[in-house]
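Appendix B: complex inputs.
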Amino acid sequence: MRSQLMKFVVVTTSLLFMAVYFFMNQHKLETLSGDWADISTGEVASSVQLMLAGQPVFQQRLKDSEIFDKEGVRQIYFLHLPKGVFARTKAEIKVASLVIDQQDIALSSTSNEAALLAVTADKRVYLLEEGELKYMMTVIWNERLQAGSIIHCVTKGLCDSISITSNHWGPIQGPYLDSDIIPGHRGMPKGRWVMGPRATFDIQSGKQQKVLVQINLLSEFPDQELILRGADAPLQKANANSEPLDAGGRLLYPGVYVVHLNLQPGANKLDMAFSKWSEPVSKDANRLAAYFTAIGLKQTD
Amino acid sequence: MTGLLNGLVFLLVNGLVVFSSWCLANYLLRDNQSLSLRVVAASILSFVHITLVVLLLGVVVRYLNALSVPILSLLISVTVLFFCRVYRRPFIAPARQAFAETFSSRDYFLYVTGFLFLIQVITLLFKVVWLPPHIWDVFVYHLPPAVEWFQQGYIPPVLDTTVNRINGAPLGMTVLAYWFFIFFRDDMLVEMPMLLWALLLVPVSIAVMRQSGLPRAWSFKFAVLIFFLPIVIMQAVTVKDHLGLNVGFIAGLLFLAEFLKEGKPRLLLLAAAAFGLMLGYKIAAPMHILMALLVFSVLFWFRQRSLLTDRQQRLALLKATGLSAVIVLLVSGYWYLRNLLVYGRLHGAYGTRLSEAGESLASDGGAFDKALSIFTNSGLFRTNLTELLPRIFDYQFAYGADLVGISGYGPQFAAFGLLALVVAIAAFFNTRLRQQPIFLLSSVAVLLFVALMFVNFNINSYRILSFFPMVLIAYAGVQLFHSEYLENKWIRLITNNIIVLSIAWSLLTLLSPHYTNLLRLNEFISLDRESRTSANYTSWFVRPRPEFYRLMDVIPVTEPIAHVAYRQSYSVGEAAPDTWQYLYMDKHWQRKTYGLHLPEYFDCQENGHCKTKPVLKTFLSENKITLLSSCKANRCLEIEDETLLEIVPGFYYFLGGG
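Resulting structure:
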């Protein structure tokens, strides 16, 4: 009888401990299902084939590049070809093409002839000779250098006389791939987060001039409103019916605002008030109101 | 064609290593019929063979390469085979017989266990071959020395590095990694040693339980259950050393227990081989062995002291003991001798500080001194005790090979190990339980666990305690059998279900790879082999990795890279003061890297902004280096210098190089 009781106690305790373990670790099953969802969402690497007169001479798998061109539109890739293949392709460039995931793309030579180039709507692929480093580094550096701003001037030379600074916007970031390791970055275009509820911009102008400013932004809030202080004219909202962008783990609603400004020589202060902003998730986080993707400037006088 | 030839050489050399070790194991265990014990012995001797070949060529002959390694190994194998030819015994027939006997019963749980084991082995093999090295410590100090040995063609006593562990830790597991690299000159198999140690755990566990009388089928099921410990599965695909340390330790104890049972001094040689290997893996190993020898001596006195009364037996014992010491010295002595000769202490550069000029300045005590002083302070013990239950139930953090904040003991330890612990403690006071061969293992496991709780605490410390669940689950199996619990139909059913459920839990929850961006896993797996590098795979480790690591595979391997290295953290927010040197490597270890000791070359502020010193440019120009990384691990410095173009954050192109 005592032995039976002992067995019962041992088995029950054992099962109890195991049940406690599973109960305490049930979140690992959620992690598991999240992991498998991520794995099944991921895509295989692109396949690239270099064709010369219809014959494949080189092939490689291409992983998604995190290097973008200055516009943040095309991903930049580099392929190193064996010396013989590179020379032959260069010599027979008219019959050469690059097949990326079954899409046939013609090749051209770069201006300094250091590389061959294939351009698609979302990719720019440089074909380099084996061992070539300097040109590759120059391309990346150059694109990054020119990508350093979201301000674009339609009128030639205008950007030389105008600069915009603010303590209320974050650094330029993006574009990011859909597969970025940080969920908040996934699919985000190039841009700068602007803090709410109010942001002040200093516009330095070299002279007195009238400009049309167009602000392209994304906001978490479909009914986000911007009020501008310090300008002669009110801020006007355009294309309110654009499709939202699913990026960074949230829906972002695009908005385009235009305003006419009469800039005076020197500093011009512009106060922007947002109707909505996100509450900070941690002590170090900011109140994010909108993600500025572009500021376009056009002289109007 | 070269790949095929390399494959054939690999199979031939390793086949002969295993075969000669099998013959030697049969010689040493010539009176023993246990197949599992002979498999364990042969495996241990194979590891010893490999270790000795690489150390002899790397340290003594100083001619370590893809030619010398197979040649010396073949010579040793042939010599061993010549001397042990009389003791050749078949493996296939007894293995088939053991297999048939094990699986002859209509035990469906056994079939399921066997099937899941097979699936897990295939999965682990896939991860080893297809996925690259991917653990923090591996990037920092497990693999970089192997790269240096390969590039230099020998094993220098001291490597020029700011990572102290490289010049203080015994690098026995790195030796094995080198072996698995050199045949193909490719890092695809460098994680194989840890997988082999994990697999060795199965015959080791079977041998331990069979030694104490557990039937074959139950031994197999419990052995597979032990293999499925999360702590084992997680580390089986790394180049770390804890599995070697812990499985080697249990193997050593197994042979000591067999000696206590049989009284054959030859068994001490096998124990010495196992202990030698584990001493070569971890600076903490001496404490394990001291504890083992302490308990062993007491049990020896009670069980085998008659060996001391007869002169001949005493002499045989003395000879075996002396030879055992020689074996230990040969297998692992180099690392400790190096430390003594170069640094004047057993733990070498461990625990040293670096001066501004990069010289090793002073000791902060090191592992041994620290161990002694800490025994007088119960603070660590209290902390460990407080954390014991949450850790054992694994729920504080996610599973990961670094075992941050968890034990990795799995549901099997909760179900079997905790109760076995109670019996293991009771066994100290029970004569019947003390008579069981497994008592040596259980008592050492309990005492060592408690001892280590006094001296060892960090967020990852349960890696070193892997022996504890391994031994206690085996102990649970033995006690369930001897207490005749397993004769009860319901208890048998419940036990079987717990085993299968625990195995299934580990299989499922540890299936998905770690430390990578799973959204890009399909992409990574489908890449060409050359691109399946650690730099492309690693997406985070505590924090997301800098983006430039992903550029590594498009940078020609002929281009050397200089990188910042510093023993201390250099800026606020840095995850740890380590250097991820391995991420600059291609799969064939062709690229030359140069570690730049931070204070020598840069003036840095706390926020990570740095200016260069003139000596940097001289160094880069002289060594024809154009690429400079300012990232040690996750965090990168911002360098201001007009001759250094920032290509991407943390990665610079030097205009004056090349």
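Chain B touches chain A through 58 residues (CB under 8 Å).
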